[in-house]
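Incident log, structure service

09:12 report received: a user says their structure output differs between two submissions of the same chain.
09:20 pulled the input from the user's history:
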Amino acid sequence: MTQVYIAAGSNVEPERHLTVAVRELERHFPGVRFSSWYRNRAVGFEGDDFINFVAGFPTDLSVEELIARLQFIEALCGRTREAPRWAPRTMDLDVLLYGDLVRQTPSLKLPRPDLLKRAYMLGPLADLAPEVVHPTEGLTIGELWRRFDRAAHPLVVVRPGGEGGV
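09:34 re-ran on a clean worker, output below:
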């Protein structure tokens, strides 16, 4: 079994779509664990705020099979593959870490390169798995998060089903 961490995010009816994603992740990946949910500004375009979380689970699926399963869940949330890259999303599910796999191909980059640049990925991952060692950096996710410039990339904890902090 390979331990996998994925980021989930939505800025189109985010609570509804993230709730669907949680339900489907629980159905497909028994033992899945979730970080807190965080609100943050859209990155790369002007748009409504996103709500994001990270999920972690063990799987026997290959990375390609995992991506296909995640794309199925995205489709259940109304995501189409033709959507522009920097645009509003009903659902975005991205593989951050697939065990210690390091792969750099045109279609797949692992660990996800922007994990170390995006608070909405690194912060929730640090909540969930601070002791995991980043495969190329050689530091724990917790240490990488402690070094991150959080003031430049604020996150606000939100409760599923309601606004505001915990």
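09:41 both user submissions now match this output. Likely a transient worker issue. Closing.
09:42 reviewer note: The chain has one domain: 2-158. Residues 161-166 have pLDDT under 50 and may be disordered.
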